[in-house]
Amino acid sequence: MWMVSSCPSSVSRSTQAASAGALFASVLWITAAQAGLLSIAVPGQRAFPESITSARDGSLFVGRLGEGGIVRADPRTGATTVFDAPGAGASRSITGVFADEASGTLWACSNDLSALGGPSSSDDSRSALKGFDLRTGAAKRSVPLPEPHPFCNDIAVDAGGAVYVTDSANPTVLRLPAGASGFEVFATNPQFAPPQPNSAGLDGIAFGGDGALYVTTYAAGGFFRIAVDKRRAGRVIKLQGRALGLPDGLRPLGRKSFLLVEGAGTLDRVEVDGDGFRVAPLRAGFRTPTSVTRVGSVAWVSEGQMRLFFNPARKGPSPALPFRIYAVPLNKGQSQ
Predict the structure, then answer these.
(1) Best CA proximity match to 115, nearest among 134, 139, 149, 92
(2) Could you tell me where the beta strands, DSSP code E, fall in 182-265?
(3) Please, which residues have CB within 8 angstroms of residue 265's CB and are 6 or more apart in sequence?
(4) Higher confidence at residue 18 or residue 218?
(5) What pLDDT digit, counting tens, does each position of 233-252 carry?
(6) Taking the complete model, does pTM exceed 0.70, yes or no?
């Protein structure tokens, strides 16, 4: 972003739920493809969608940077509703969003971007992690990031319910343990720092199937693996591969593969191999894509047009309206 149980019956139920989810996802894409539903308009003339996530039932949730609030979209019909209105839960501009099914929470990063035309509809100008009920949208929690001058960007959740966020303004990955009232520093490294003042550092974040935590650095174009041992950060490795153009949203795909959007305009499949990675572009031509989520064999990409938000004094074209999220079908080889 930016320029920013061991019980057999429980296992059986989980397996059944996962199978049902997979079946739903496949039916969902067939329905969408037959209907020609390959994009969905995001409401708001200044929406500037920054992040996208999805629930097991296929519902899509999109955070809006310019107008604030979170939009829910139905990928079967294209219908959209404002799930959380601007200012809900004392939120401001919404960056990262993450649907946490286990806790029934929609997590969202909120930042004060009113100086750039973002919303100022709440009295909480702090950078904070907000929690909303995943079913009703009711505000549940608000946890400010530690100073100095943080910027909550994107979100991941581990199997124990701890929430991890990237701080784009500081070289830190923060961790909110389940049930805790405040963040702790999970990992810090000089390589995470923004390359210049007022530029963006840490951005995308996702757990791999190998149990490690992976992060991107936006302006510097880095891709890192953070080893995790008993919920503690271990060695940080900068993975070697081709130059990335403004790597942003990151979501797990296979054991060591990810969906990644590059703000330069592409959706990629990234495969980690040892201490390196390979990139296979899946779709190009986006206007500053910001995030991606997967529903079955479909990747949904949010197109943010961020250059027009972060440079409001720029004279030239207005945003192409309506803002949109796009469906990108994944073939079998791309979805593993």
Answers:
(1) 92
(2) 184-188, 202-207, 213-217, 222-229, 232-238, 247-252, 257-262
(3) 245, 284, 285, 286, 287, 288, 289
(4) 218
(5) 999 999 999 999 999 999 99
(6) yes
